[in-house]
């Protein structure tokens, strides 16, 4: 992970870049009006509760979105596919959307937009599945997610450790995935902040240690016990180190490889299942006191911004660039907000 100094330099660069991009007209008109008319709440389920044919339909849809031509070439010239479009927007905005008050709202909208693309552009009938990593915390390598036939394939090939001081503790593998549906997948941008054209394999470096340490039920319960959004957000996202990675970092660093890359992690298809689960934990926390928590938002506007600095509010804009219309945090507070006329989302979670 780059130093804080590098974070800041990139942040300034990206802020100016996005500032100009944001002036472009946004597609779709009033998003709340559009989705309100067609809101049929879909239910997100845990990966292992899906039937084999449902699992295969999901994987098929991911491969379909990876084969659909990019629409975001104006701002991400080396994006080849719609899958890359999503990854590219995350790379561009990395310093604007992590360790900020709108971290969870942004990723909530991002996953819902990906889910929408799978359904509307690739004929996927289901909802975005989630990965409850607490079920695998003590037996990470045996997770049904890694099944080569009915899952996402397994670990990356073993490569010698590069001696990096930021190596993930307990990491294994590290090379290209060797089986499953993404064995021939090519990534066209990344790693890190790079938007240059590339052709890379999907890398994984499983760390059962990270899973056991950060992806367990006690960690989730600790997050759920937080009294307000500010604390909840802090506990979920943790810190930029392996001593206190939070449940967010747990999902990323236990899979490792591409998933462990703060910028280009959406190049790992499992990213969306991990973030759906984080969103589920967020919704669970909100549901413990909905009247208060549908409007509880706080946290810095800028990455790791000072606690004395400005805070994110309900009117804070959430911008997915070319992926979706711009909305506000308020539009994203309720996952069934479209049905209720209070937002743009239209899904729920099966426990
Ligand atoms: Cu992210």
TrEMBL record:
<keyword id="KW-0479">Metal-binding</keyword>
<feature type="signal peptide">
    <location>
        <begin position="1"/>
        <end position="23"/>
    </location>
</feature>
<dbReference type="InterPro" id="IPR002227">
    <property type="entry name" value="Tyrosinase_Cu-bd"/>
</dbReference>
<protein>
    <submittedName>
        <fullName>(Perigord truffle) hypothetical protein</fullName>
    </submittedName>
</protein>
<dbReference type="Pfam" id="PF00264">
    <property type="entry name" value="Tyrosinase"/>
</dbReference>
<feature type="domain" description="Tyrosinase copper-binding">
    <location>
        <begin position="98"/>
        <end position="115"/>
    </location>
</feature>
<keyword id="KW-0186">Copper</keyword>
<dbReference type="GO" id="GO:0046872">
    <property type="term" value="F:metal ion binding"/>
</dbReference>
<dbReference type="InterPro" id="IPR008922">
    <property type="entry name" value="Di-copper_centre_dom_sf"/>
</dbReference>
<dbReference type="GO" id="GO:0016491">
    <property type="term" value="F:oxidoreductase activity"/>
</dbReference>
<dbReference type="InterPro" id="IPR050316">
    <property type="entry name" value="Tyrosinase/Hemocyanin"/>
</dbReference>
<keyword id="KW-0732">Signal</keyword>
């Amino acid at each position: 992970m780059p130093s804080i100094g590098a974070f800041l330099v990139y942040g300034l660069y990206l802020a100016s870049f996005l500032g100009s991009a944001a002036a472009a007209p946004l597609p779709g008109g009033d998003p709340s009006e559009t989705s309100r008319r067609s809101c049929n709440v879909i239910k997100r389920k845990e990966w292992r509760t899906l039937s084999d044919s449902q699992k295969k339909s999901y994987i098929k849809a991911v491969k379909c979105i990876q084969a659909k031509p990019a629409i975001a070439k104006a701002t991400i010239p080396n994006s080849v596919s719609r899958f890359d479009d999503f990854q590219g927007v995350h790379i561009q905005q990395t310093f604007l959307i992590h360790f900020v008050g709108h971290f969870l709202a942004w990723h909530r909208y991002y996953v819902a937009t990906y889910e929408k693309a799978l359904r509307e552009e690739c004929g996927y009938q289901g909802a975005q599945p989630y990965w409850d990593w607490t079920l695998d915390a003590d037996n990470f390598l045996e997770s049904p997610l890694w099944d080569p036939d009915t899952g996402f394939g397994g670990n990356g090939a073993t490569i010698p450790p590069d001696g990096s001081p930021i190596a993930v503790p307990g990491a294994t593998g590290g090379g290209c995935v060797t089986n499953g549906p993404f064995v021939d997948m090519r990534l066209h941008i990344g790693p890190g902040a790079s938007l240059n054209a590339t052709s890379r394999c999907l890398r994984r470096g499983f760390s059962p240690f990270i899973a056991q340490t950060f992806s367990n039920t006690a960690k989730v319960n600790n997050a759920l016990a937080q009294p307000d959004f500010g604390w909840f957000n802090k506990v979920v996202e943790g810190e930029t180190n392996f001593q206190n990675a939070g449940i967010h970092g747990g999902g990323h660093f236990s899979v490792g490889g591409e998933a462990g890359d703060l910028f280009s992690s959406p190049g790992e298809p499992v990213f969306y299942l991990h973030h759906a689960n984080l969103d589920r934990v967020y919704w669970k926390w909100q549901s413990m006191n909905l009247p208060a928590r549908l409007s509880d938002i706080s946290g810095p506007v800028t990455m790791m911004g000072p606690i004395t600095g400005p805070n994110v509010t309900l009117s804070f804009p959430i911008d997915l660039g070319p992926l979706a219309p711009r909305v506000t945090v308020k539009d994203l507070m309720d996952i069934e907000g479209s049905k209720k006329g209070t937002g743009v989302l239209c899904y729920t979670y099966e426990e």
